[in-house]
Design goal:
Layout lengths: L18 H10 L4 E4 L2 H11 L8 E2 L2 H10 L14 E3 L1 H5 L6 E5 L5 E6 L2 E3 L3 H9 L7 H9 L3 E9 L15 H11 L4 E6 L5 H13 L3 E6 L11 H12 L7 E3 L10 H14 L4 E4 L20 H8 L1 H4 L2 E4 L3 E4 L4 E4 L9 E2 L3 H9 L11 H10 L8 E6 L6 H15 L4 E5 H7 L8 H20 L3 E5 L5 H12 L3 E7 L3 H7 L4 H6 L21 E3 L6 H15 L4
Parallel strand pairs: 1-4, 8-9, 8-11, 9-10, 11-12, 16-18, 16-19, 17-18, 19-20
Antiparallel strand pairs: 2-7, 3-7, 4-5, 5-7, 6-7, 13-14, 13-15
Helix pairs in contact: 5-6, 9-14, 10-11, 15-21, 17-18
The protein binds 3'-phosphate-adenosine-5'-phosphate sulfate.
């Protein structure tokens, strides 16, 4: 297949009004109802307005939506695999009438576009999930978003672009299709091989992209996604620094970098086709599609959602119509004797082959172990290590839970002193009573208020953890579900160690240091944990402490030993 094609569907859409028309539109829209776009919608609208989603000229209407779900086609017959919808909640939808115009605003309240609400309907989300993701399992990130996060009503209609969505980061690396096509034209690039990625690039990626471009006698576009990717991915700031570093490795004038503000759906095969359409709109002639392209990970039973080559197959089936060529990704492995990377299908049994899996790479990062130069460039590893320090430099939270009077505060204080002796990190103690005085003074002890209290503690602790500090929390935290939420909030930022101070109710009541149990028994305090409010024992505590057999000092010591074995202290 040759060079530079027309955009998908024939025309490159550009929905931005000229300067004076945009000013008029802003005045007209003063009386319009306003919708604040969600993070995903902000990504989608940018790519509709600038033509990356050509031929779309707005959010899908029902006939297009139906066609996309059923056979990956818009009502016009043009191939389009992913539904692009403006989802809103029922009350907002009910306030609208078909035919009226609304203002769409970004998170700062700036009007990005106006939209004619041509159609309003309630989708069957399960049917959508089954068509687009070939799965209705909520563990699939795309299904999860659709079922648990997307609003229930869809609005379809054409858009008028008022102001391009604002980005404060990497402005010079963000391009519209017009701009990128212009760059290719200026450079005289007729064949452009695009590389889609949501990960940092190492030597294997360098080798495969370099080979792909050379094989097709084309130039290379590194086109990483910086919109929404998969939870747990390396943040885009770190990645962009890595891409800038790797750019220097390619022969001069052969390769360029541009950032794509796409909200990925992790829809595997359908997503690969979508990526092809988008890259064609950007003026690329080839797209590298790998094994398990845009894959969502594994199902709960360990099976993959899609076959490893399903994305390539679906792309190939429509390649002619898409008018962008597939470059199948060949897995590259390091052949030690040759001291170079080669495609896996060129290896022979006598070769000494080396690879490092993603899991192994993360383990080495976490444990601060060596990562060999054959795997990645030192400059890239330096960038990644800055953001992903080894465990002994990461923050963590020690979260005590237990009945009132169980000894949480005493152990927490003993631990605090021991950690201060060790030094190296800032420490904050979020004791139950302290928090109730400073952070949650207006809250009582209803289930709702306790949950709010614990989530506040969790949020503060997650910020401390993210910034490399130590948070020691010691609330009662009686409910399992809330503790689980706190764990989720913190674990993505560093360590979370749940310590159950398992002193029995009888012992706590016999001690009754604050006289609260007596008051609770007398009915003077209501909703008292253990008396007339439940305490749900943790199922997944890292440490369980029996205060009858362990002094506070020894309990603190046990926690230190645990921290050492996990690698958080040296
Ligand atoms: S919770 O459930 O986690 O929000 O509770 P927490 O904020 O840790 O509670 C802090 C202290 O409040 C005192 N207190 C009560 N506890 C339980 N139930 C009721 N109704 C209640 N009313 C007051 C109690 O002394 C808790 O402190 P600790 O240090 O646990 O004894």
């Amino acid at each position: 297949m040759g060079a530079f094609k027309e955009p998908h569907g024939g025309t490159l859409v550009d929905l931005f009004l000229g300067e004076s028309a945009a000013e008029e539109e802003k005045i007209k829209a003063i009386d319009y109802k306003s919708w604040d776009l969600t993070e995903r919608q902000q990504c989608d609208i940018e790519l509709i307005l600038n033509g990356a989603f050509s031929p779309l000229d707005g959010f899908l209407k029902q006939a297009d939506y139906k066609g996309v779900l059923e056979d990956m086609r818009l009502a016009s017959g043009v191939i389009w695999p992913i539904p692009i919808n403006l989802d809103v909640p029922e009350p907002f939808a009910e306030s609208l009438e078909e035919g009226e115009w609304i203002a769409l605003r970004d998170s700062e309240g700036v009007m990005v576009a106006t939209m004619e609400v041509e159609e309003i309907w309630t989708p069957d989300k399960e049917a959508e999930a089954a068509s687009v993701f070939a799965s209705t399992l909520e563990e699939h990130p795309g299904v999860d978003y659709l079922v648990n996060h997307a609003n229930n009503v869809y609005l379809g209609g054409r858009l008028r672009g008022v102001e391009p969505p604002m980005h404060y980061d990497y402005k010079l690396l963000r391009d519209s299709p017009q701009e990128l096509r212009g760059r290719f034209r200026k450079l005289g690039w007729r064949k452009v091989v695009a590389f889609q990625t949501r990960n940092p690039m190492h030597r294997a990626h360098y080798e495969l992209t370099f080979r792909a471009a050379r094989q097709h006698e084309g130039n290379l576009l590194l086109h990483p996604v910086v919109g929404m990717t998969k939870k747990g991915d390396v943040d885009h700031f770190t990645r962009v620094r890595c891409y800038e570093r790797i750019l220097d490795k390619y022969p001069e004038q052969t390769t360029t970098l541009s950032l794509l503000n796409l909200a990925m759906r992790m829809a595997g095969p359908r997503e690969a086709v979508w990526h092809g359409i988008i890259r064609k709109n950007y003026g690329c002639t080839h797209l590298i599609v790998g094994r398990d392209h845009a894959g969502p990970g594994k199902q709960p039973d360990g099976q993959p959602y899609y076959g490893p080559y399903e994305a390539q197959e679906l792309f190939t089936k429509h390649e002619k119509e898409l008018e962008i060529s597939l470059v199948p990704f060949q897995q590259m492995v390091y052949a030690e004797d040759k001291a170079q990377y080669i495609p896996v299908d060129e290896t022979t049994p006598d070769m000494r082959i080396k690879t490092i899996t993603g899991t192994e790479f993360r383990r080495r990062l976490t444990e601060g172990l060596d990562i060999p130069e054959w795997f990645s460039y030192p400059e890239i590893l330096e960038e990644i290590r800055k953001m992903y320090p080894p465990r002994h430099k990461q923050g963590f939270t020690i979260f005590f839970t237990g009945l009132s009077g169980s000894g949480k505060s005493t152990i927490a204080n003993a631990l605090l002193v021991k950690l201060l002796e060790l030094g190296g990190r800032q420490i904050t103690l979020l004791d139950g009573d302290l928090v109730r005085k400073n952070l949650s003074s207006e809250l009582g002890f209803s289930k709702e208020h306790r949950n709010l209290n614990i989530l506040r503690i969790g949020w503060v602790a997650s910020e401390i953890t993210k910034n490399g500090g130590i948070a020691i929390c010691a609330p009662i935290a009686p409910y399992q579900a809330t503790r689980r939420k706190v764990r989720q909030m913190i674990e993505s930022n560093g360590g979370f160690i749940l310590v159950h101070v398992a002193t029995s109710l009888e012992v706590c009541e016999a001690r009754d240091r604050k006289g609260l149990y007596a008051k609770a028994r007398a009915g003077l305090i209501k909703e008292f944990t253990g008396i007339d409010d439940p305490y749900e024992e943790p199922e997944t505590a890292e440490i369980v402490i029996d205060t009858q057999s362990l002094s506070p000092e020894l309990a603190a010591h046990r926690i230190l030993v645990k921290l050492e074995s996990l690698g958080f202290i040296k």
